[in-house]
């Protein structure tokens, strides 16, 4: 790990007037301050082209702050906003950066800072990354101190554009200074995967092809584009969440044990397993696009006025993957993601092989389910004898639900809070490294080229609010997943509103 940033750190958020900054970046900074994880001596500057007064800027960002204790946190909001200010400036000329350097310099001089600490967060479109990174290095770099820069996904559109972006950033910022943020790596359950896998002999011993039958990672959103489809229509669901978020989760699920928690040891193993993935098969794919809801109350994707009328863009995809190494050879993996489905949920579902026949004619398979969101939980579906005189078995669960296990007062940092804190401390573990990014784009670019070509099959229509395309169940069966004969599995029994269904 690198050295942590100092007590008197200047934090500058570029794109401060945009949605990402006001809904994620500044609320995360406030959350860290509220929990005592951010020094009360830092200086926070919002930088954007929009003409805003300090008062307007502070009102805009504070609307999205989360208060865990309304009365106690009200004073925290006031304290935090005193640390913040707004600076208007262009991204493509040096004048704004020179003024920014002057403001930061005065703050550091007032506090007798000998080794400056500066953190720049680029809540901006990738098209501006190089321009801003260049101007920052030239005008606001902390010579003799520590400088870090956070860039948001997407890190390119394909392999070529990703390499071009990296080629432009690499001469300006070292890999140690650059933090590529994929917020899924900051989610509590994703961070828990390393401990869950390698800290429990019970699981570590069966985490292989000898015991696991199939693995699937699912990402479901209960809403569509809702009039904001213009951007989505240029990227689709595969590029939006599968090449980055879900692939990151899959590498943590499948990599070998790192020698330590050292960030580079972890990232080395992620790259190794990525290199063992077989090329993605364009025939091993299910594509869908949502249509109107069955009752007609919700519009279809093509009803969105910001979407091209004849668009074939994919709003649902299920993809089979294979890993050619000793641990995973022959195990089918499935990523599936979609919009406008029956619920919003992200989970990992690992189904084990059946027990040997003999004493049991028919018995359900064990399943480990890791719910990333909402309502973080880990539960194992197991077989147990029905109490009493019966000798029949019943499918039940071993359940760790965070909402029932941990007090409401227990602080679980949100993804952006966790990652900004990691950056502040100099921990790269949960950020994407350059070679990892390159291998992931090399894996997905041929598939994306196929999906966006005339050779791709037309996406199967599925109704808004449904479970997805009708071909999903046969697709999962083909990839080794066996559905329970007992119907919909209810989990947990104390919370009937939460379903553990596929």
From TrEMBL:
GO terms for molecular function: glucose-6-phosphate dehydrogenase activity; NADP binding. Gene3D superfamilies: Dihydrodipicolinate Reductase, domain 2, NAD(P)-binding Rossmann-like Domain. It holds the Pfam family G6PD_N. Residues 12-192 form the Glucose-6-phosphate dehydrogenase NAD-binding domain. PROSITE patterns: G6P_DEHYDROGENASE. The keyword Acyltransferase does not apply. GO terms for biological process: glucose metabolic process; pentose-phosphate shunt, oxidative branch. It catalyses: D-glucose 6-phosphate + NADP(+) = 6-phospho-D-glucono-1,5-lactone + NADPH + H(+). Pathway: Carbohydrate degradation; pentose phosphate pathway; D-ribulose 5-phosphate from D-glucose 6-phosphate (oxidative stage): step 1/3. Its EC number is 1.1.1.49. InterPro entries: G6P_DH (IPR001282), G6P_DH_AS (IPR019796), G6P_DH_C (IPR022675), G6P_DH_NAD-bd (IPR022674), NAD(P)-bd_dom_sf (IPR036291). Keywords: Carbohydrate metabolism, Glucose metabolism, NADP, Oxidoreductase. It comes from the Eukaryota. Residues 194-482 form the Glucose-6-phosphate dehydrogenase C-terminal domain. GO terms for cellular component: cytosol. PANTHER family: GLUCOSE-6-PHOSPHATE 1-DEHYDROGENASE (PTHR23429:SF0), GLUCOSE-6-PHOSPHATE 1-DEHYDROGENASE G6PD (PTHR23429). Catalyzes the rate-limiting step of the oxidative pentose-phosphate pathway, which represents a route for the dissimilation of carbohydrates besides glycolysis. The main function of this enzyme is to provide reducing power (NADPH) and pentose phosphates for fatty acid and nucleic acid synthesis. Belongs to the glucose-6-phosphate dehydrogenase family. This is Glucose-6-phosphate 1-dehydrogenase. It comes from [Candida] railenensis. The lineage of its organism: Eukaryota, Fungi, Dikarya, Ascomycota, Saccharomycotina.
């Amino acid at each position: 790990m690198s050295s942590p940033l100092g007590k008197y750190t200047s934090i500058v958020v570029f794109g401060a007037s945009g949605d990402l900054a006001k809904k994620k970046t500044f609320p995360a900074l406030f959350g860290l301050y509220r929990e005592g994880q951010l020094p009360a001596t830092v200086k926070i500057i919002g930088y954007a082209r929009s003409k805003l007064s300090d008062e307007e800027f502070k009102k805009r960002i504070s609307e999205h702050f989360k208060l865990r204790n309304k009365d106690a946190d009200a004073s925290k909001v006031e304290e935090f906003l005193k640390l913040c200010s707004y600076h208007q400036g262009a991204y493509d000329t040096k004048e704004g950066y020179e003024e920014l350097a002057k403001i930061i310099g005065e703050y550091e001089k007032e506090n007798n800072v000998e080794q400056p600490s500066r953190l720049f967060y680029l809540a901006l479109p990738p098209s501006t990354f190089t321009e801003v990174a260049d101007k920052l290095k030239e005008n606001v770099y902390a010579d003799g101190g520590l400088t870090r820069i956070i860039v948001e996904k997407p890190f390119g559109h394909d392999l070529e554009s990703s390499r071009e972006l990296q080629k432009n950033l690499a001469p300006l910022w070292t890999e140690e200074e650059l933090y590529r943020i994929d917020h899924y790596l900051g989610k509590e359950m994703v961070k828990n995967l390393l401990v869950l896998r390698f800290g429990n002999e019970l699981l570590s011993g069966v985490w292989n092809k000898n015991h696991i039958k199939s693995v699937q990672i699912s990402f479901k959103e209960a809403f569509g584009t809702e009039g904001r489809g213009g951007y989505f229509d240029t990227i689709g669901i595969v590029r939006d969440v599968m090449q980055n978020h879900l692939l990151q989760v899959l590498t943590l699920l499948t990599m070998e044990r790192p020698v330590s928690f050292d960030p580079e040891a972890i990232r080395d193993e992620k790259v190794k397993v990525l290199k063992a993935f077989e090329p993605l098969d364009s025939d091993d794919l299910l594509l869908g696009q949502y249509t109107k809801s069955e009752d007609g109350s919700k519009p279809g994707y093509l009803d969105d006025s910001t979407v091209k009328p004849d668009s074939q863009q994919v709003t649902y995809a299920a993809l089979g993957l294979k890993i050619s190494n000793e641990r995973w050879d022959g195990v089918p993996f499935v990523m599936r993601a979609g919009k406008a489905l029956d619920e919003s949920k992200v989970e990992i579902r690992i189904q084990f092989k059946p027990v040997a026949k003999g004493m049991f004619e028919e018995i359900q398979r064990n399943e480990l389910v890791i719910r990333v969101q909402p309502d973080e939980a880990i539960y194992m579906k197991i077989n147990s004898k029905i109490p009493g005189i019966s000798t029949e078995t019943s499918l039940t669960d071993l359940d760790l639900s965070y909402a029932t296990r941990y007090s409401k007062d227990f602080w679980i940092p949100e993804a952006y809070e966790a990652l900004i804190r990691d950056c502040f401390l100099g921990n790269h573990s949960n950020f994407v490294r350059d070679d990892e990014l390159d291998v992931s784009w090399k894996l997905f670019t041929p598939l994306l080229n196929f999906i966006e070509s005339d050779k791709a099959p037309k996406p199967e229509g599925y109704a808004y609010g449904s479970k997805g395309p009708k071909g999903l169940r046969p697709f999962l069966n083909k990839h080794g997943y066996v559905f329970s004969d007992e119907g919909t599995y209810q989990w947990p029994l104390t919370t009937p509103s939460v379903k553990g269904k596929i």
